[in-house]
Structure formats: C-alpha cells, structure tokens
C-alpha cells in the first residue's frame, strides 16, 4: 500500500518516503535512487541492530533504488515486489528468487504499479496499474494541504501469467481499485476500492466476479491480508470523526488521503465484525499474520507518532501484548512471514548507500 525514500521527517509534512507513493497497499516507491547492482549478499549478522533477537541470518536481497512490498510465493521459493530502478520513473513489478537472484520485470513499465501478489498455485500474479490511463507516471500530489497520499483514479487490478504475460483486467469501476491479495486457497481476492465514495474493503473471485463489500464505516480501510487458514483478515483503517472526518472526505474527493493515524483491525470472515487491535494514534500499517494465527506483525511509528522512525512490532491477538521486533533508527516496514513461518521478508532503509534508499531483506525467524 504506499511509501518511499527517506521515511517521513514529519508525517504531516512532505517527505521523500515510502508513504509518499502512488497507492496504499503496504507501500510504493519514492524518488531517491541509486544504480541497482542486483548482487545478493551472503548472510551476515552485521545488518542486525541490538535487540533484534527474533531475526537471524539477516541478508540483503536488493541493492540500490527503491524496493518494497516483497511478498512470498506460497512455496517460499520466490518473491514478487515493486521497484523504481534503472531508467524507471516510478514503480514497476518484479520477481526474484528468494535469495535475491534471477531478478526480472513482470509488468509493462507503463504507468505506475503497486500491490502485487502471487497466486498460491503460482499460475498467476495480480497487481494494480494505471497503464490504461496513460503510459507515463502519474503526477505527484499537491502537498499544499500537508502530507497526503494520492489515490490515482487510473488504478485497476490486473491478473497476469506468472511472468507477466496475458494481462486481464479484473476491476473496471471508476476510481481507485488496488491493494489486492489472494486468499491461501486462491479462491478469493481481497482489495480496496473507492467505488462507493469511501475507501472500503471488497472481496471477489479470481476472475473479478461476485464482488462483495466487507467494510462500511467512514474512513480508509486497506492493506488487507488473509490469515493462513483463510478464515480471518487483518488490515489498517482510519476512523475519523468530527473535523477529521470532514478533512478525510474533502481530501477523498480530490483523490487524496492523509495517512497520519491508522489502526490495525481484524475480522472473521464468517461473523464479519471488525475488531480493533491497536489504539495508539500512530501510523500503523502493513500488518501480516504469523501462520500460527495468534500473532500479527506490523510497522508503526508508535514511539514517535510525529516522526519517521518506523519499526516492526508483533502483537498477540488474544492478549494485545506488543513486542518491538526491529530497532533500526529509520524505516522498517512491509513485513511478510513465509507460509511455514520460518522466514520473514521486509523492507528497510538500513545499510543504504544513499540517504533514503530502501531495500528488501530476508531473515530466518526464531521465537
């Protein structure tokens, strides 16, 4: 769902950051970029910070540019991610082996893309793209109203072959459609859409049919992921009231959203009653279930809600106990556990060659 460069000097001011990009999945790409080398590093503990006890054999998979939202294939052998690199002016979708090798672009390079995911059977990929609205990258938003994310009307969700061929458009309603992910069985796709005049969660079949609305409260609902058993979802949401609601609705009419306060919610897909997990007034985003169904990892600036230091945190769904996982003094975000729970992939500013560079990292997870 949408971030880049050096991550927010102040969440209410303009910054070159992973929150500064085109969509709202877990994030998108920013502006500062170095020449990628695509040279995978050997496992090293030098990339870890004190206190990161759950992370072992930390290795860097991308080198230079803006790289984020890396998500595992179901078997854990590959990753799909978005990147601004080489001559690209905005994000395109790439695949690579889980060790960082065999990097290749699987989107057309036209428009801007975000929020990619691999089908559980590895026979298809999905991602959001604006290429039907134009070949060029959409313009950056106007920050005269403060720190905002753009919601490009040209975004639709597309399914393609594993290497990007035979693209099929799955959504065709006016306005923003993005942030799509497959269920573990591959029988459903959950996504965010502005089709009702608000930003709500929807679910559809893999061919785009039988669309049903899952949320209906005023505010942004997005960045959803299924639990390993497919029975629950987790997502981030805003629930503005009073002047904050008026501001949200005014920005939404302009295709913008202010992301300074987002809380983590879960919902059982049978009962469909949202349950709020966090209540800290910070920017909490990028939640993902651990396969045990008892823990959720997410990124947050809860220790400094006005600041740019985002770390990964783990919350126990039953007790609400929160544990800080990363301690890098800048940006860590977009976490995803492998489906066996043995590995964790995330994006970070750590070890960047230039300020604001964001790369993909892999660790072995230990309790």
Automatic annotation (TrEMBL):
Signal sequence range: 1-33
Keyword presence, Signal: yes
UniProt keywords, alphabetically: Signal
InterPro entries found in the cross-reference section: 6-blade_b-propeller_TolB-like (IPR011042), WD40 (IPR011659), WD40/YVTN_repeat-like_dom_sf (IPR015943)
Nucleotidyltransferase found in the keyword field: no
Source organism superkingdom: Bacteria
Pfam families named in the record: PD40
Gene3D superfamilies: TolB, C-terminal domain (2.120.10.30), YVTN repeat-like/Quinoprotein amine dehydrogenase (2.130.10.10)
Family: Belongs to the TolB family.
Name this polypeptide is given: Biopolymer transporter Tol
């Amino acid at each position: 769902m949408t971030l880049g460069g050096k991550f927010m000097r102040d969440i209410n001011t303009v910054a070159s950051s992973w929150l500064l990009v085109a969509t709202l999945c877990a994030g998108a790409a920013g502006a500062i970029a170095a020449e990628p080398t695509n040279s995978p590093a050997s496992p090293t503990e030098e990339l870890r910070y004190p206190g990161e006890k759950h992370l072992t054999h930390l290795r860097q998979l991308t080198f230079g540019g803006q790289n984020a939202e890396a998500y595992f294939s179901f078997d854990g052998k590959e990753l799909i991610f978005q990147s601004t690199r080489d001559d690209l002016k905005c994000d395109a979708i790439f695949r690579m082996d889980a060790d960082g090798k065999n990097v290749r672009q699987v989107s057309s390079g036209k428009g801007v893309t975000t929020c990619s995911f691999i089908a559980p059977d590895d026979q298809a990929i999905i991602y959001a793209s604006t290429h039907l609205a134009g070949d060029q990258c959409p313009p950056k938003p106007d920050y005269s109203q403060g720190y905002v994310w753009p919601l490009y009307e040209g975004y639709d969700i597309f399914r393609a072959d594993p290497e990007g061929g035979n693209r099929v458009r799955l959504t065709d309603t006016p306005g923003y459609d993005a942030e799509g992910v497959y269920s573990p069985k591959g029988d459903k796709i959950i996504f965010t859409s502005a089709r009702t005049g608000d930003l709500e969660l929807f679910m559809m079949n893999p061919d785009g049919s039988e669309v049903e609305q899952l949320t209906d409260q005023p505010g942004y609902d997005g960045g959803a992921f299924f639990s390993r058993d497919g029975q629950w979802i987790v997502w981030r949401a805003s629930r503005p009231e009073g002047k904050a609601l008026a501001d949200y609705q005014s920005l939404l009419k302009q295709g913008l959203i202010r992301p300074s306060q987002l809380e983590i919610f879960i919902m059982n897909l049978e009962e469909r009653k949202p349950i709020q997990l966090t209540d800290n007034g910070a920017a909490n985003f990028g939640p993902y279930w651990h396969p045990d169904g008892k823990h959720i990892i997410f990124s947050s600036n809860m220790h400094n809600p006005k600041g740019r230091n985002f770390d990964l945190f783990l919350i126990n769904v039953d007790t609400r106990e929160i544990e800080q996982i990363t301690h890098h003094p800048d940006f860590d975000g977009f976490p995803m556990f492998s489906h066996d729970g043995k590995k964790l992939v995330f994006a970070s500013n750590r070890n960047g060659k230039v300020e604001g560079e964001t790369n993909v990292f892999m660790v072995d997870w230990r309790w």
